[in-house]
Design brief:
It comes from Anaplasma ovis str. Haibei. This protein is an alpha/beta fold and 332 residues long. The protein is built from 15 helices and nine strands. It has two domains: 10-135 and 214-330, 3-Layer(aba) Sandwich (Malonyl-Coenzyme A Acyl Carrier Protein, domain 2); 139-207, Malonyl-CoA ACP transacylase, ACP-binding (Alpha-Beta Plaits, 2-Layer Sandwich), CATH 3.30.70.250.
Length: 332
């Protein structure tokens, strides 16, 4: 599973909901014909001007689950296409693994070659609307617990469950674990962390209790659509949120995609798995630098880079990828 001698194993990471902002991706849209085609294709597939909401807002429209998930995928894929344009070839020749945080996993599914762009856009449209409906039927949300271990947070969530559903949603890194649950349970968290290693509770500005059993209401609609999708085996190895490991069988991937809606995002374990595979260059492709920040807290022995503009494509990324592409070519 290692790389050819002299090469590094490059990982692409794609951000999830919360990283979006009005105006993201505009510079790459203006600068790269390949990126511009991505925005146009998604708009055409959806039959609406998502790109206008991405570039102009309003913020409330962009942050809605129905738009935010699609918008993040569109911008991240556009950046990948601009990068390939700059590199002069597909990223599969230079990138060893891909993974995405939460909804970012859908970007990874497209970039790895599993699902085509129109289908991933349609899936996210259905997924976003189904999750929005599920959220509207419950009174719930998400909160980040800062400090303490995963075990401590699991114990706190179990105690909070006496007041309503409360489950670990994202194991982001040591000292940052997110829970989803009923408002009645989340309100108990500041009291329940007393005497533990958890220092504070931060309520997240999200529209629902994602990655929890509350989302079961969305699963059947999402599952029905996934069952109809045309899928390919990954051309680039992909690490999945649910298992924190790689999978290539399409049947397994379909199952993981449905389970991800209600399951924990095992991000810390996923990064640790990749470091164990010898990966040393992690490139966050998309708006913000949330995942680079988490990477530093998980393992600061590896390098994290961010690609969110044409300038960062040229300065942060192209040299690393060209070297990897050359090494892979020489080893062949």
């Amino acid at each position: 599973m290692g790389s050819p001698e002299g090469a590094v194993s490059v990982v692409f990471m794609f951000p999830g909901q919360g990283s979006q902002f009005v105006g993201m991706g505009r510079e790459v849209y203006d600068s790269s014909p390949a990126a511009r085609r991505v925005f146009h294709e998604v708009d055409e597939t959806l039959g609406r001007h998502l790109s206008r909401i991405i570039f102009q807002g309003p913020e409330e429209a962009l942050t809605s689950t129905c738009n935010a998930q699609l918008a993040l995928m569109t911008v991240s894929v556009a950046l990948v296409r601009a990068l390939e344009e700059n590199l002069g070839g597909p990223i599969k020749d230079a990138v060893k693994y891909v993974l995405g945080h939460s909804v970012g996993e859908h970007t990874a599914l497209h970039v790895s070659g599993v699902i085509g762009l129109p289908d991933i856009a349609k899936l996210l449209d259905i997924r976003g609307k189904a999750m929005h409906r599920a959220s509207s039927l419950c009174c719930g949300g998400m909160a980040a617990l800062i400090g303490g271990s995963l075990g401590e947070v699991e114990a706190i969530a179990a105690r909070a469950s006496e007041y309503g559903i409360c489950e670990v949603a994202n194991d982001n890194c040591t000292g940052q674990v997110v829970v989803s649950g009923a408002e009645s349970a989340l309100q108990q968290l500041p009291k329940l962390i007393e005497g533990t290693g958890v220092k504070k509770v931060i309520k997240l500005r999200v529209s629902g209790p994602f990655h929890s059993s509350f989302m079961r209401l969305a699963c059947s609609e999402i599952s029905d659509f996934i069952d109809q999708l045309e899928m390919n085996r990954p051309a680039v190895e992909m690490v999945f949120n649910v298992s924190a490991s790689t999978h290539s069988d399409c049947g397994e991937i379909r199952d993981l995609m449905v389970r991800q809606v209600v399951s924990r995002v095992r991000w810390r374990e996923s990064i640790e798995y990749l470091v164990g595979c010898g990966c040393s260059e992690f490139i966050e492709v998309g708006p913000g630098q949330v995942l680079v920040g988490l990477l530093r807290r998980i393992d600061n022995s590896v390098r994290g880079l961010s690609v969110d503009s044409m300038e960062s494509i040229r300065t942060n990324c192209s040299g690393v990828l060209r070297s990897e592409k050359l090494a892979a070519s020489n080893s062949g």
